[in-house]
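Data deposition worksheet. Section B asks for the primary sequence of the deposited chain exactly as it was used as input, without tags or linkers unless they were present during the calculation. Section C holds the resulting structure in token form. Section D is free text for depositor observations; keep each observation to a single sentence. Incomplete worksheets are returned to the depositor.
Section A, Depositor: J.P.
Section B:
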Amino acid sequence: MTFRLRRIRKYAIFWKIALGVFALDQLTKLLVIWLIPWAPGQPTYALPGDFGFDPAFAPIPVVESFFYLVHIDNPGAAWSLFAGHQILLSLFAVAALAALFFFRRHLELERLPSQIALGLLAGGIVGNLLDRVAHNHVIDFLDVHLPLYGRWPA
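Section C:
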């Protein structure tokens, strides 16, 4: 076996998880686009009883008062931080992926737990990066409401 192939196989779990997460991320976002209505111009939604509630764009309850499926377009990062700065956020994503590559030895990427954790991270980063390039925002759809906090960012 060549040296290059051996090097790639050393990180096989990382690559499988990263590609699997990326594929699942994009598939679920396509399903959200096709199946869950989005109100143009609305970065969020209202629940029954809230001001501005429109039943056409109501979230889908999975666990009532706790977990919903929604279709939200996030123009920024968590809590819509840096909204409208897609180039900056995209460069940050590329820098994060580059850091994973350059620091893979320090991150102990040869170890199984590191490959799993960093594969999940890399797959999510690439999925959101593709959203930013293709849609100019990230498609969010998991909405959790915490009892003492309220709505957590989707």
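Section D:
The mean pLDDT is 84.
The chain has four helices and four strands.
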